[in-house]
Amino acid sequence: MINYLNLYKVFFYLRYVEETISKKYSEGKMRCPTHLSIGQEAISAIFSCLVKKKDYTISMHRPHTHYLAKGGNLNALISELYGKANGCSKGRGGSMHLVDESVNFMGSTSILGNNIPIGIGLGLSSKTLKKNNITYIFLGDAAVEQGSFYESLNFAVVNNLKVIFICENNEFSVYSNLSLRQPKNRKIFQLAKSIGVNSNFSTGKKLEDIYKKMKNAIDYVNKNKKPYFLEIKTSRWIEHCGPNDDSGLGYRSLNKLRLWKKNDFLISLKKKLNTKSNITKKIENKIKSKVLKAFKFAEKSKFPKIQDLLTNVYE
Ligand SMILES: Cc1ncc(C[n+]2csc(CCOP(=O)(O)OP(=O)(O)O)c2C)c(N)n1
Predict the structure, then answer these.
(1) Which of 173, 175, 238, 246 is the pocket-test mutation for ligand 1 (most atoms within 8 Å of CB)?
(2) What is the model's pTM?
(3) Which atom, in ligand 1's list, is nearest to the CA of 110?
(4) Helices in 96-206 by DSSP H: which ranges?
(5) Is the minimum distance from the CB of 39 to ligand 1 under 6 angstroms?
(6) Between β-strands 176-177 and 198-202, what pairing exists: parallel, antiparallel or unpaired?
(7) For atom 7 of ligand 1, which residue has the closest CA?
């Protein structure tokens, strides 16, 4: 059963963090390329309600909401974006390279498809060490076009790894629609199935459907000790990389975008919860204050020292 109040808390938190980054980005203090998940938060919010602390997660170039949903520290995320020494990757990684082993968030990477075999390795290590946890691998629809995707799914299925692939299908690889990149009638989740990984698909239009399918995936993996692939449709509301609206560029259907925005879960959740009183207001104020404090904290924090330039790097 979905706890809608908890879901709203996470959802609002993720949206507000991403929107605040977007608002502050033009100040020029966050100097890393930044891919925001505004419009795609439902997947992370539901993931946050279902994932366990012991589970591993590995993400890609759009990782903020995955990190926070896994229990990542907000101050550590924002400091990382500001390049500060107390960032989760010590100010070395920026937006795309987050890592925080304290919450089993094992990394995120800018190289498309690169996180998939790393997740498989984590799954293999869990099996070898009998850790009894799940590894979640987040990927977009374009990562399916990388060779590592096929090798990894094959390895996971042959070795019975407890891995869940969560494919956030927003239909775009930067400006290229899926229809230009993959055969017309191919369904990504069926492709995974054809390799031997049990799979399912959510239209992403109903929170309950995403929740049910993610929960089923977890139950399947725990019961069968095998991998699972879940494809969820979603929509990125702003530009691929950066804080701005890009609806004037003409590469995507504005009608489709409008429909996704009309179906904003934040609004429907709020309506559902505020039947008697405005209970979401208090929650929102608390979250806003926490988020704004994190930005102040990051701004005041120190940059890494020049003498630390060569620590934690391969020479
Ligand atoms: C190996 C490699 N090729 C190309 C790129 C450039 N690139 C960065 S993000 C991206 C598209 C990613 O699309 P998708 O995986 O669907 O995720 P989304 O950005 O839509 O969330 C591309 C082609 C890259 N980072 N790595």
Answers:
(1) 173
(2) 0.98
(3) 25
(4) 115-128, 147-158, 178-181, 188-195
(5) no
(6) unpaired
(7) 112
Span 300-313, pLDDT tens digits: 999 999 999 888 78
CA distance 145 to 127: 27
SS3 call for 178: helix
Q: What is the pLDDT of residues 60-104, one digit of tens each?
A: 999 999 999 999 999 999 999 999 999 999 999 999 999 999 999
Nearest CA to ligand 1 atom 11: 173
What domains can be seen in the chain, in order of their start residue?
Answer: 4-308 (3.40.50.970)
Residue pLDDT, tens place only, 127-161 = 999 999 999 999 999 999 999 999 999 999 999 99
More confident residue, 314 or 172: 172
pLDDT level of residue 265 (50, 70, 90 thresholds): very high
Query: Which of 112, 166, 170 best tests ligand 1's pocket when mutated (most atoms within 8 Å of CB)?
Result: 112
Q: How buried is 145 (Cβ within 10 angstroms: 0-12 exposed, 13-18 middle, 19+ buried)?
A: middle
C-beta 143 within 6 A of ligand 1: yes
Res. 294: pLDDT tops 90: yes
Single-letter residue type at 101:
E
Tell me the β-bridge partners of 198.
Answer: 228
CA dihedral 94, 95, 97, 101 (to 10 degrees): 100
State which ligand 1 atom lies nearest to the alpha carbon of 144. Answer: 15
